[in-house]
Amino acid sequence: MKELSVFPTGEKNTAYAKYFIKQSYLYPLSTEQVHISNVTFEPGCRNNWHVHTAKKGGGQILICTAGEGWYQEWGQPARRLKPGDVVNIPTGVKHWHGATKDSWFQHIAIAVPGEECGNEWLEPVSDEDYSKLD
């Protein structure tokens, strides 16, 4: 596969595959001070609705680097993402993100430090809801 940006695509994201529709790829960039990974989504790939949890602090930052994608918070309209966009996701916000149906998409995911951080994975984004996005 041709690289989409200066960051490597990485390997198939098998560890989290059950929380994604279609194929994603993961390349860890750093795990020393904070966890930072390059995440690549094939066209139509998206993760399930999920919430980043923490007793204090936490959340996630996405830095979009290639292709086009979507980000949506529960109860809000979806936001189209392109290279250079930054998304700040506070702890406790139900959301999903992924590629548009006709474009590869890549973002850097930064885990915001906090106490007792985790993820609560929820239901998939339905094909019906996803197909309405343009």
Automatic annotation (TrEMBL):
Q: Which Gene3D superfamilies match?
A: Jelly Rolls
Per the record, a Pfam family? Cupin_2
Ranges for domain Cupin type-2 come to 39-102
Listed name of the protein: Cupin type-2 domain-containing protein
Q: Which organism is it from?
A: Dialister hominis
